[in-house]
C-alpha cells in the first residue's frame, strides 16, 4: 500500500465485500460472538501516544516492521512477512491502526503493542459516559454492549452489584439505556463497553461499533468516508478531554527569580455510592496490575481519609490521590499523562460505579 | 488531621483558597486574587532575607498578600523583618508583576489551634501588628490585628469554613512533617528510580519531590536532606526491608525486587514508622501524666 488513496481503496473494498458476505450468510445468535472474532471486518484502533513515531520505533521490541509509504504519516505494518495493517500517525497524539484482518488477530497485535514495557502507547479509554456522548454522533442508535464486572465485590458490607453483560442491537438502543438507568438495582452496573452508531454522510452510511478501548469497527455500510469521519470525530472528542485535563488540571511549575509560579488544580471522581472499605479499595486500585496499572503507597490521614502517592506504571507519571468514601480527589503532577485519568475513570465505571462522574473545578470533564 | 505537620496543612489550605472550586472554599479566587508564587525568597532594602510561603496578588484591589505558615512560634528577627517590610521593598525587589503604584502590602501569619498560643505570645512580646489567622479544625479565622485591605479583613474576620477535609497535595511536605509522611511523599520517586534502574542521592529525591525546595530557607533544606538521608539509612539497615542498596553516596533499589514487592515493603515501613510515632506521642503523654503535681 503506497499512499492514502490506496488505503481508502483497500478498506472500502473490504467493507463492501464483508457487507455482501453478511447478507448471504445467516448465523445463529449463539454463534455470533464466536464468528465475530474470525470476521475480517474493516476496523480501526485508535492509539494514544506520548512519543514521536521515531521514538516509538526506537523503543519498541515487538516484532513489527514499519514500511514507509509515499505519505510520511502513513506506514504499512508488517509481521511475519505479511502486511497486517496500516498505521496513520497524522494526529501525533492519537494514531490509528487500520486493519482488514480477523478481529482476534488485531486484538492480539494491539495488545502486544500497548502492553509492551515502555511503549508509551495506550488505549484511548472511552468511559461509559464518553460512549454515550459518542453515540450522539450518529442520527440514531444502533446498539450497545454492556459489561460490568464488580472488582470490589468482596469488600465487607458492600451492597452487592452483580456482574452483568448484555448485547443489544437495534435502533431503540438509546431509549433502552435510559430505561435501564431508572432501575435502582442495576443502574450502578450500567457500564457501556461499546456503542453502536448509525452514521450517515452525504454519499452513504456506516453502522459502526465503537468499543471503550477505542476500536471502531464497520458492521455494515457503503461509505469508507463515513468510517474516517466518525474516527476523526472521536479523535477530536478524546483529544479535547485530554487537552482539558492536561492544560487546566495538571500541575505545572515555572521557576522565577524569587519563587515558583504554580498552576493546576484537583480533579474529582464522585461516586453515586460510598466506598464501604477504603483499605480494600486502595489495595485493589493500587495493586500495580491491570486494568488500573497504578503503583501506590497509602497513608491514613483520618479513619475515612486516605492519601495515596501513586505512579502510573504505563507512563511513569506521578499522581496523588485523596480518597474519601464518596470521592477520589486526583492531583496530576507535572509531565504526567492525562490518559491515566481516563483509564482510571473508565475502569472504575466498569468495575465499581457506572454512575460515577469525573469533575473538574465546576465542570463535568466526562 | 493527623499525620502531617501544621505547616504543610496550612500551606495547602491557603493555596486551596486561591483555586477555583465549588466543593472547597475559594474566596480569594472569587475575589480576583491569584497565587503568584510559592516559596517566595527575596531581600529587603537592608539586605535581609524575607521568605514567606506564599505570595498572592489581588490586582483588582492593588494588594499583595504574603502568607507565612507556622508550625510553632515565630522568631523575633523574622517577625520584625516582616513588620518593617514596606510596599517599597516589594517594588524594589521586583517580586511581583503587579502595578507598583499604590501597592498595598498585607502580611499574615497562619497557624493552628495547636500553636496559636506561641504565635500570640510572640506577638505580645514584639508588638508586630501582623494579623494572625488560625485554622481550628475546619475553620480558618483571624485571631488578632487587622488586614490593611478591607476585603481581606472582612473575609478572615468572618472566617472561612472547609466543608470537607482540607486538600494536602498542592504543597508536598516540610521538615516539620513526621518521617512516615515524608516517606509516603517520596515513595513515588523510589518507584520511578526502580523502574529506571537508576542510582540516586538524597538531593536527587528532594529536587524531584519538592518543586519549591530551592526557595526554602537554608535550615529547612538542610533539615529535609538530613531527614531523607536518615529515612533511607534506617530502611537500608532494617533487616525486614533490604531492598535499598547503599552505593556510596548514592542509593539504588534492588533491581531483583518487583514493583509490587517494593510497594508492599515501603507500605510496611510507613506503618512501622507510624507505630513508632504513635508510641512516641503516647510516651510523651505518659511522662506528662507522671510528672508530680506540685501543691
Give a short synopsis of this structure.
Chain A is an alpha+beta fold. Chain A has helices at 4-24, 29-38, 53-59, 103-115, 128-135, 173-181, 224-249, 278-285, 339-351, and strands at residues 43-49, 65-68, 74-79, 82-88, 94-99, 121-122, 140-148, 164-169, 192-201, 204-211, 215-221, 252-256, 259-263, 267-270, 294-302, 305-312, 318-324, 327-332, 357-359.
Order of SSEs of chain A, N→C? HHEHEEEEHEHEEHEEEHEEEHEEEEHE
Mean pLDDT figure of chain A: 91
- Supply Rg of chain B: 21 Å
Number of domains of chain B: 2
The low-confidence parts of chain A are: none
Return the string of H and E elements of chain B. HHEEEEEHHEHEEHEHEHHEEH
Which stretches of chain B are low in confidence, meaning pLDDT under 50 for 5 or more residues running?
Answer: 285-295
| Spatial strand arrangement across the major sheet of chain B | 1-4-5-6-7-8-9
Characterize the structure shown.
The complex is a heterodimer of chains A (366) and B (295). Chain A has 9 helices and 19 strands. Chain A is an alpha+beta fold and 366 residues long. In chain A, strands 1, 2, 3, 4, 5, 6, 7, 8, 9, 10 and 11 form an 11-stranded antiparallel sheet that branches. A 6-stranded antiparallel sheet of chain A has the order 15-16-17-18-14-19. A two-stranded antiparallel ribbon of chain A has the order 12-13. The mean pLDDT of chain A is 91. Chain B has 2 domains: 6-161, Trna Endonuclease, Chain: A, domain 1 (3-Layer(aba) Sandwich), CATH 3.40.1350; 179-282. Chain B has helices at residues 6-16, 27-30, 76-84, 87-93, 116-126, 150-158, 179-195, 202-209, 218-237, 259-290, and strands spanning 34-38, 42-43, 49-50, 54-58, 63-69, 104-112, 132-136, 139-144, 160-161, 199-200, 244-246, 251-253. In chain B, the strands form 3 sheets. In chain B, strands 1-4-5-6-7-8-9 form a 7-stranded mixed sheet. In chain B, strands 10-12-11 form a 3-stranded antiparallel sheet. In chain B, strands 2-3 form a two-stranded antiparallel ribbon. In chain B, a hairpin with a 4-residue loop joins strand 4 and strand 5. In chain B, helix 7 (179-195) packs across helix 8 and helix 7 (179-195) packs antiparallel against helix 10. The two termini of chain B are 36 Å apart. Mean pLDDT of chain B is 92; it is low at 285-295. The interface between A and B is large, with 41 and 49 residues.
